[in-house]
């Protein structure tokens, strides 16, 4: 039984298989007549829609469960919810605050568990990010030796992205303000995945010559009380035309979305010719389908 809580749950060759499944035309109906439970503790536009449509494309039935309907560890325990859902569904996805809830699900589950975002990781996003980079730079094989710079908060998206990009051979630079770096344990995990990573507090130096620049919100879901302080502490980390002017001539801009125009990214960059964010959002569905096909094959 295989699960997907973080990109490095896959070996490099398995990651390439998942990406190939995602890039392939829709054909296998590996979820025919079966259900996938999609549990959400947080809001979602892309993840819910891309997962539901991926399940439909594979012949299955997606069942989205809002936080007020189940109440993980509120109405009943994570373990009891998981064991119950295993009786109805062939696969379970969950978007949670504490990553440990996903690990607890894995501990009792008889079906694959998929991380649809936790406070630590967002692997399905990272798969879509790699598909988007591959679309641009000559396939996954064309990514080796390319450089990716992430500017902003050293968060769940940054960690999964760094692992995925490094695993396909990209060099990774991360520019964060002081105090917002990847944690030591996250960094150790990225390094253990064999990633060539460079961390800095200087966004201008970090984007110099980069093939791709990526950012995410400064305030993630669950951190809303810190928004004012974060806005002040992230000053100078907005990805705008000035910052993009230091990148390679063919560089692209990526953002997992939702975006806060005027904070982590300027409107001009988000809407500009280098932006690939809408293709990236669409690739969430292809990445999700790839992950589901692969997980169902490896039950
Ligand atoms: N990028 C992403 O996960 O978007 P949602 O939060 O809307 O699902
Ligand atoms: N870092 C953001 C990503 C949203 C898709 C969050 O966790 O809210």
UniProtKB/TrEMBL annotation:
GO-annotated molecular function: amino acid binding; ornithine carbamoyltransferase activity
One annotated GO biological process: L-arginine biosynthetic process via ornithine
Keyword line: Transferase
Keyword check for Magnesium: no
Domain Aspartate/ornithine carbamoyltransferase Asp/Orn-binding, residue spans: 145-295
Domain Aspartate/ornithine carbamoyltransferase carbamoyl-P binding as annotated: residue spans: 2-133
Matching Gene3D superfamilies: Aspartate/ornithine carbamoyltransferase (3.40.50.1370)
Pfam families (alphabetical): OTCace (PF00185), OTCace_N (PF02729)
Entry coiled-coil feature ranges: none
NCBIfam families: orni_carb_tr (TIGR00658), PRK00779.1 (NF001986)
Protein name: Unannotated protein
């Amino acid at each position: 039984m295989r699960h997907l809580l973080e990109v490095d749950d896959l070996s490099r060759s398995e990651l390439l298989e998942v990406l190939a499944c995602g890039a392939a035309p829709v054909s296998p109906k590996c979820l025919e007549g079966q259900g996938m439970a999609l549990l959400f503790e947080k809001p979602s536009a892309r993840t819910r829609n891309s997962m539901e449509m991926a399940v439909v494309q594979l012949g299955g039935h997606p069942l989205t469960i809002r936080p007020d309907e189940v109440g993980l560890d509120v109405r009943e325990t994570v373990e009891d919810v998981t064991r119950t859902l295993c009786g109805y569904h062939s696969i379970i996805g969950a978007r949670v605050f504490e990553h440990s809830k996903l690990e607890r699900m894995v501990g009792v589950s008889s079906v694959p568990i998929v991380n649809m975002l936790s406070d630590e990781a967002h692997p399905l996003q990272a798969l879509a990010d790699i598909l988007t980079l591959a679309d641009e730079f000559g396939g996954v094989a064309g990514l080796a030796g390319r450089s990716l710079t992430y500017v902003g908060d050293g968060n769940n998206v940054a960690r999964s992205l760094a692992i995925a990009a490094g695993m396909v051979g990209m060099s990774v630079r991360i520019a964060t303000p002081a105090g917002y770096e990847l944690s030591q344990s996250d960094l150790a995990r990225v390094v253990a995945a064999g990633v060539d990573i460079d961390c800095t507090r200087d966004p201008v130096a970090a984007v110099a010559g980069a093939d791709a620049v990526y950012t995410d919100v400064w305030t993630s879901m669950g951190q809303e009380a810190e928004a004012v302080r974060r806005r002040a502490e992230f000053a100078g980390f907005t990805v705008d035309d000035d910052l993009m002017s230091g990148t390679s001539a063919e560089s692209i801009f990526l953002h997992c979305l939702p975006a806060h125009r005027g904070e982590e990214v300027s409107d001009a960059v988000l809407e500009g010719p280098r932006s690939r964010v809408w293709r990236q959002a669409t690739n969430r569905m292809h990445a999700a389908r790839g992950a589901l096909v692969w997980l169902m094959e490896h039950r």
